[in-house]
Amino acid sequence: MSPASQPPTWTITHLRHISLRCAAFDESVDYYAGPWGLRTLGDSDARTALLRATGAEHHVLELHRADRNGIDHISLGLADERAVDAAAVSVREAIARWDGGDERAAESPLGGTTAEGARLLSEPGALDRPGGGYGFRLADPEGRVVELSATVEAVPTLAADATPDKLAHVVLNTADIEALCAWWCEVLGFRVSDWSERQMVFLRCNADHHSIAFNRAEWASLNHVAYEVPSLDAYMASLGRLNRAGHTVGWGPGRHGPGNNAFGYFVDPAGTVPEITAEVQQVDEATWVPRTWPRIPELSDRWGTAGPPSPEMRQHMAGTPD
Ligand SMILES: [Fe+2]
Known about the structure:
Blueprint lengths: L11 E11 L2 H9 L5 E2 L7 E5 L8 E5 L4 E9 L2 H19 L3 H5 L11 E2 L4 E2 L7 E6 L5 E6 L15 E9 L2 H12 L2 E6 L3 E5 L7 E5 L4 E8 L3 H13 L6 E5 L6 E4 L8 E5 L12 E3 L3 H4 L10 H8 L4
Parallel strand pairs: 1-4, 5-9, 10-13, 11-18, 14-17
Antiparallel strand pairs: 1-5, 2-3, 3-4, 6-8, 7-8, 8-9, 10-14, 11-12, 12-13, 15-16, 16-17
Bound molecules: fe (ii) ion.
The site of fe (ii) ion has 6 residues, from strand 10 and strand 14.
């Protein structure tokens, strides 16, 4: 039976946080807690920093002191502990189906979902981390660690200002965009919002046009991480704040076609690419029809203000192989 014919009894509600290994830890903490506009939590120490936005999510960014950059894990939210338990059962079954001869898995360069690929890394249980909660971890076919959790401690919201209120999206480079897209949709329940030719695919788990996107590349790595601010005015003020602190925007200001979001891409002290975004398109689940956007300047840069990304920006977006 096709996994798609069994609608899950659980859904991912939102993107919680991204956890990064960081080769320039001290400088990066200063950057994100300074001009980027996040706030360091008291649980931070000399090896790990937890940074929150103004929204209720416990933290949106974790940085771990490391020798080289990489993704530690991506955290996704579920509604409650029952949903987490249902997800663990469903994910295990879906991985077994892919392992058990799904044609796309067999034909994919990613191969079957063997011990080297997709698997559950832990059973549902209490998470022994700041913010707590209940969840489990899995590895996707390219070995990315994904944590699904519920009942993580919320933090009191702060007054909205010209700083990020949430994590908007994570874009991941992949060596097999077709297979990985199918896997994230069928195993984790994401939906395709749009394609940008066959170069990028934008996936949603709620009304936001995308929370995860994949970019066709030579290796699996992080492309960029986007933080949302509450208005176009806050977006321009963010670019101004970073500019005055000596961090000029590397690509932007501009507005994308797919997702219709305003964008401004920077390079952090470790060489990772963060994005300030605003006005992300909201999708009506019942009526949305995915489309394939041509990759032409008028649609990649609707305002005509950004131009194409520089070779240096593209190099940073290619990331370090995970
Ligand atoms: Fe983005």
